[in-house]
Amino acid sequence: MNRKSGHMRAGLRRRVRADTARRSTRRKLIIAAAAWPALAFTGAVFGQSAKPPVLIGWLNSGSRERDASTLGAFKEGMAALGWKEGANYALEERWAEGQLSRLPTLAAKASPDIPVVHAAGTAVLARGLAKSLARPGGMVTGVTNIASDLSEKKLELLLAAAPKLKRIGFLADATSPVSAAYIKTVPRAAEHFRVEVRVAEAAKAEELEGAISRLAKEGVQALVVSPSGWFPSERARIVKLALAHRWPVIAGSSVYAQEGALLSYGVDRLALYRRSAYYVDRILKGAKPGDLPIEQPTKFELVLNMKTAKALGLEIPREFAVRVDRVIE
User: Fold this and answer.
1) What is the pLDDT of residue 40?
2) Which domains, and CATH codes, for the chain?
3) If we measure between CA atoms, which residue out of 18, 92, 25, 93 comes closest to residue 54?
4) In a 3-state reduction of DSSP, which class is residue 74?
5) How far are the Cα atoms of 109, 149, 220 from residue 27, in angstroms, in the given order?
6) Residue 295: strand pairing partners
7) Backbone phi, then psi, for 277, in 5-degree steps?
8) What's the CA gap between 285 and 67, in Å, rounded?
């Protein structure tokens, strides 16, 4: 082998090692896109543009078993925009299983310059993740499931369905600034409707039973569930604990009504996840997250679980029944 040939082969080996290193680095950066530290997100999708297939990370505070429908809705949204999973994008899923304390670990490897799409969260502004809804200005955008103060509206609906209620319990998330702001409006709502209210907080799943017990000792007759990042993952338990005291329950998401709550009044969560695909599509095509306004929902759905009403011995007033958008028999 002559000296020239040897140099050529040595140069080829260096290029191969360099290419391998670049591929490894790119792969690590793409995987990092699956774990941006999006604390207090009900759900988030985010991605980094690269040569197809693009890897999109999915960080959700719930579990795949209970919340797979949200992921399915996102995929539907992507498909409607021409993105085919496995062909031009791939997903890396990370689920916190209802434990918000796991989110920092799940989101530990991503760099802060990875775009984040808020799929159905509640604390974008409260946690300083965006400067404003109209001009987020940073790396976070998307859709939120909080349009305005709904504590008074939920109390109104609960009393319309069960007019004899006099003392109402509110379950608050001690870790959520959105829940705290929500609870601050409760006294005004109680005064307006001339009822008594009691509030109990829970910071984690292990505290739910104690919170419900405190409300029971204070003689509440019904339960309003405040907004929370982790309450939805414990919805079945919350409803079960409340029904053990024969309390009608009202919450924001229809998944509560499906679990046995008397009422739910809120946005269509699956529609929010489908809509989040629009933001991912825009970002992957070059838009800056900070330039995309964060959307608030405008359509709300009132769901009545008639089976629960019958089990509680409630006779739903006719004038209320005609306001219901959907009935679970």
Assistant:
1) 36
2) 33-146+269-291 (3.40.50.2300), 151-266+300-328 (3.40.50.2300)
3) 92
4) helix
5) 12, 43, 54
6) 143
7) -60, -30
8) 28
Kindly report each contact of residues 151-154 with a partner whose C-beta sits within 8 Å and lies 24 or more positions away, as own/partner.
151/182, 151/183, 151/185, 151/186, 151/189, 151/224, 151/226, 152/185, 152/188, 152/189, 152/192, 153/265, 154/224, 154/250, 154/252, 154/265
Residue (of 191, 265, 194, 195) closest to 225 by Cα position: 265
**Using omega within 30 degrees of 0 as the cis cutoff, is the peptide bond preceding 53 cis?**
yes
For the cut 80, the answer to whether the pLDDT of residue 142 exceeds it is yes
Mean residue pLDDT of the chain comes to 82
> Which pLDDT tens digit goes with each residue over 205-260?
999 999 999 999 999 999 999 988 788 889 999 999 999 999 999 999 898 999 99
Structural contact between residues 64 and 267, judged by C-beta atoms closer than 8 angstroms:
no
**If you ran DSSP here, which 8-state letter would residue 301 be given?**
E
Share of the chain above pLDDT 70, in %: 79
In degrees rounded to 5, what are phi and psi of residue 24? -65, -45
Over residues 18-31, the pLDDT tens digits come to 444 444 333 322 22
